[in-house]
Design a protein that fits this description.
The chain is mainly α. It has one domain (3-142). It is 63% helix and 0% strand. The protein is built from six helices and no strands. The two termini are 20 Å apart.
Amino acid sequence: MNKKQRYITAFLLSVCLAGTAPMANAAFDVDAWAEGLQGESDVNALARLYLDMSIQLNPPTGGALGIHGTEKNPSAFDDHLADMSPAAWDASYRAHVAFRDRLAAIDASKLSRADQIDLHILKNDVAASRMHAAIAADAAHLFGGRLQ
């Protein structure tokens, strides 16, 4: 692949993945978050945690959902763009793997029908986001982090 093709590929990849791009947020510690996730079993609480994780990893997601910031900083998510560095994609992938593993440990047969459906939706969304993060992390490493 010549240099021009690499830049075109990088550009197209960045455009395609912009909606799922993570934001390396110093306040978001993937390991601590994953550890705290293990104690939760309520599907609705897990859905809220997933939304929080998604916004922490990709602040523009918050803006798209009408969540522009926090009580302490009302424009916290509007003030940040997605970080497409290899480290940010790796963090996103690790967070999604931790979430996938937590969801897999839930016995769906013990849930109400509504919670079974919510669990299924969450599992599918986490799987798709994990796949996007894995592809982007590989591409970011392949291009030496020049996808920023």
